[in-house]
Design a protein that fits this description.
The chain is elongated. Among the domains are: 209 residues, Multidrug efflux transporter AcrB transmembrane domain (Multidrug efflux transporter AcrB transmembrane fold, Up-down Bundle), CATH 1.20.1640.10; 140 residues, EIF_2_alpha (Alpha-Beta Plaits, 2-Layer Sandwich), CATH 3.30.70.1130; 133 residues. The protein is built from 30 helices and nine strands. The protein is an alpha+beta fold. It starts with a helix and ends with a helix. Helix 9 packs parallel to helix 11, helix 10 packs across helix 24 and helix 14 runs antiparallel to helix 27. Keywords: Cell membrane, Membrane, Transmembrane, Transmembrane helix. This is RND family transporter. Pfam families: MMPL. It is a multi-pass membrane protein.
């Protein structure tokens, strides 16, 4: 009943989950860079534009232009729209000056004449394309932008464009909204595929228990709890965080399997239902909780990232594993307890949900009591661990060299942060955006916010004009500059007035739209440098280098005294992601290693037990970096988390193997024999656990988002590497260190004994001398 109530509450929380795909998912809002962008640019000058692009054989056709005008008149009345620019407005204004009638001319020759003399190329780049721009505030919420987009699409439909023309509604807001929709549908695909793969795994490897598919609905309840917590804690769904759920299914189902397997084992021993539950909680609960703590410590390092979507990913993983543990501990054990009660009353047998109890009990006792012939997997695991233990120098040398080489190659792995490469490349919104770029050219910008005491100072405007001309002429990737100077010169016969009063008079005549585009009060103005498609052509490193060049130019071609210039904008914000994904991910991995080591040391209070699993996972981290380099993969906001994930997931396998190793050592086995026994008895369970995790991560590969599918590929490889290291690297490390510790202990004991004997001889001599002196 409690679980049902929590499920209902979780569904309510899930309704509060928002989608996030904007700039603030890449850059921390508390950073100075983002605050400059948000406060100085976005709030004061920032706008977003929905672009309506009409293409056909001849966009100068009067009927086409009249349809465009009908769309213009409808769109400009949409709430939240700041400005609409359209070729139809230029034609109507010029025609009004010529004839006194503000209408689209019917005469094609008149239209051609107006276009040739007065039409901006941005509105009609050629005879086959016409552009209408719907401008909204840059601070408009996602819901407001979506409302404006849908209203614009409706206005286009009602405008009755001629049938032989193609009308495309595109632009950055349209792309972001389409991406959010794609993420929603992709989320369902990933969860559905994860569930299907888990059914296959459980059916194949968990067939020795009753109700073999039960762990799946138990972990799904944990996922529902996670969704609810996500909504109540205001954690948004992003390209990264949506991948947490298949990961959680892969991890969480292991908890459910452990509890399910143990309670079935206790019941098979003939214990009562109550005793089986108590023993299961007593023995399995702490072991699984230790694994959860170590996994959480590995994930905790994700919070050190300065990329918000990685922090959200870490929050979801931390919350999710706790929720899956709670669901497995309380709900899972309770359901099995109830099912077993019902099975004894033969109720489930009538429903076809249960095999005969006697058969199950006989089979279970056979598993426990009878010696069975080792199967192929057990023989293989024993052989691998034996070979690695007998050749420690060879194995560890090769592993160490590969690790060092991988850590070096990791520094050469590229970084990809272009949002457009993360999404499905056949997504219509992306294709439309790319097509618009081909027609209009790129619109990436460097935005220079200029703080001054007087926006109308002629010296300031002269400097802006000279600096703009210098940068456009001298820097190949700066295609054009735009500022209030262009408007002032156009209003004053191409010259900048000599006095502040004349400039202020021109400002006073401007429309609010013209003024607000470049001026804020009397102290802030903006200079825009159009850098075309620099984000895709140069990459973020190139954009950063270009901004550094502009910074250098500002130093030697300095603005007037008292004027301060800040470079900001979308491009500069994304540049900050470079350092976050390079230095940030390295620090994340190092912190994860320290946290896992510290956690193991606190739990075991044994240096050997704390060090061995960590050394094994450090090797895997090195292998992973080399694997990424040689497969040509690039770091993204998701793959940057791999170090933490390897530590969190892989440490569990090494810990389980270590626990069994020392259990056998406590029984009196020597190190080699203990390792062989551990490989056989726990190895198969570790492989099964790894298989469920691998299958859970495999669902990510099917994602239409390349950022997610690439993450799935490399994560599956890393889990396989972690399993390989557990059976190849872990045995020689722990056996060698354990032997060294044993030898050191024997040496110290013998040294203490000899030291104690020497002291007794000296004492006897001293007593004899004392007696002689007394005599």
């Amino acid at each position: 009943m409690i679980a049902l109530l929590l499920i209902i509450i979780s569904f309510q929380g899930a309704q509060l989950i928002g989608m996030a795909s904007g700039t603030d998912t890449f850059v921390d809002k508390s950073s100075k860079l983002y605050q400059n962008y948000d406060h100085l640019y976005l709030n004061l000058f920032g706008t977003e534009s929905i672009v309506v692009m009409v293409e056909g054989s001849d966009v100068t056709d009067p009927e086409l232009l009249k349809a465009l005008d009908r769309a213009y008149l409808s769109v400009q009345n949409i709430p939240g729209v700041v400005e609409v620019t359209s070729p139809s407005t230029v034609l109507k204004e010029v025609n009004y000056q010529m004839t006194g009638r503000s209408v689209i001319p019917d005469d094609p020759e008149t239209i051609d004449g107006i276009i040739a003399s007065s039409m901006p190329s941005a509105l009609m780049p050629d005879d086959t394309h016409a552009i209408m721009s719907v401008v909204m505030e840059g601070t408009a919420s996602d819901s407001t932008q979506e409302d404006i987009l849908r209203e614009t699409e409706t206005s286009i439909e009602l405008a009755n464009f001629p049938a032989d023309y193609n009308v495309i509604v595109t632009g950055e807001p349209a792309f972001m909204i389409a991406m959010n929709d794609e993420m929603n549908s992709s989320m369902g695909l990933l969860l559905g595929l994860s569930v299907l793969l888990m059914i296959v795994v459980l059916y194949l490897v968990f067939k020795h228990v009753r109700w073999r598919l039960l762990p799946l609905p138990i972990v799904l309840v944990g996922i529902i709890f996670t969704f609810g917590a996500m909504g109540f804690l205001d954690i948004p769904m992003s390209m990264v965080s949506m991948s947490a759920f298949p990961v959680l299914i892969g991890l969480g189902i292991d908890y459910a399997i452990q509890f399910h397997n143990r309670i079935e084992e206790e019941l098979a021993r003939g214990e009562s239902d109550e005793e089986a539950v108590i023993d299961t909680i007593k023995h399995t609960g702490p072991a699984v909780l230790i694994a959860l703590i170590i996994t959480a410590l590995g994930f905790f390092s994700l919070f050190t990232s300065t990329v918000p979507m990685i922090q959200d990913f870490g929050k979801l993983l931390m919350i999710g594993i706790v929720m899956c543990f709670i669901a497995s501990l309380f709900l899972g054990v309770t359901v099995i307890y109830g099912f077993d009660k019902l099975s004894k009353k033969n109720i489930l047998a009538r429903l076809g949900l249960k095999k005969k109890t006697a058969h199950h009990e006989t089979h279970a006792h056979a598993i426990i009591n009878e010696e069975h012939e080792p199967d192929f997997l057990e023989k293989a695991l024993k052989g691998i661990s034996t070979f690695s233990m007998r050749n420690p120098v060879l194995i560890l040398s090769i592993a160490g060299l590969l690790c060092i080489g991988g850590l070096y190659a990791d520094n050469l792995v590229g970084i990809q942060t272009d949002t457009e490469t993360f999404v499905p490349q056949d997504m219509p919104a992306l294709l439309d955006l790319a097509h618009m770029g081909e027609i209009l050219g790129g619109d990436d910008q460097l935005n220079l916010i200029i703080k001054t005491d007087d926006n109308a100072d002629p010296e300031l405007l002269e400097w802006i004009d000279e600096f703009s001309e210098h940068e456009v002429a001298g820097r190949s990737h700066i295609q054009e500059a735009s500022s209030i100077v262009d408007i002032v010169k156009a209003a004053n016969s191409g010259e900048i007035p000599d006095s502040s009063e004349e400039i202020q008079a021109i400002y006073d005549q401007l429309s609010d739209t013209q003024r607000d585009a470049y001026l804020n009060g009397n102290s802030i103005t903006m200079l825009n440098f159009n850098i075309g498609n620099a984000m895709s052509e140069l990459g973020l490193e190139g954009v950063e280098a270009l901004s550094n060049i502009v910074e250098e130019d500002l130093k030697w071609m300095a603005p007037p005294p008292g004027v301060h210039v800040t470079i900001t904008g979308h491009s500069m914000v994304y540049v900050a992601v470079i350092s976050a994904l390079t230095s940030g991910r390295v620090f994340m991995t190092m912190l994860g290693i320290v946290l896992v080591f510290g956690g193991l040391l606190v739990i075991y209070r044994d240096m050997l037990k704390a060090l061995t699993p960590v050394l094994t996972m450090v090797v895997v981290v090195g292998w992973s970096g080399g694997l990424m380099y040689y497969t040509g993969m690039e770091y993204t906001p998701m793959t940057a988390t791999l170090g933490a994930l390897i530590l969190g997931v892989g440490s569990e396998y090494a810990i389980l193997m270590m626990e069994r190793y020392f259990e056998e050592r406590d029984k009196g086995a020597d190190p080699e024999a203990a390792m062989q026994e551990a490989s056989v008895k726990i190895g198969k369970a570790i492989v099964t656990s790894g298989a469920t995790t691998v299958f859970g991560f495999c669902a990510l590969i099917a994602s239409p988002f390349s950022i997610t599918s690439n993450f799935g590929v490399i994560t599956v490889m890393d889990v396989i590497l972690a399993l390989l290291a557990t059976f190849v690297i872990f045995p020689p490390i722990i056996v060698s260190l354990d032997k060294y510790r044993e030898k050191r202990r024997h040496f110290l004991e013998s040294h203490n004994k000899s030291g104690s004997g020497g002291s007794n001889i000296l004492k006897s001599i001293q007593e004899a001398i004392t007696n002689e002196c007394e005599i």
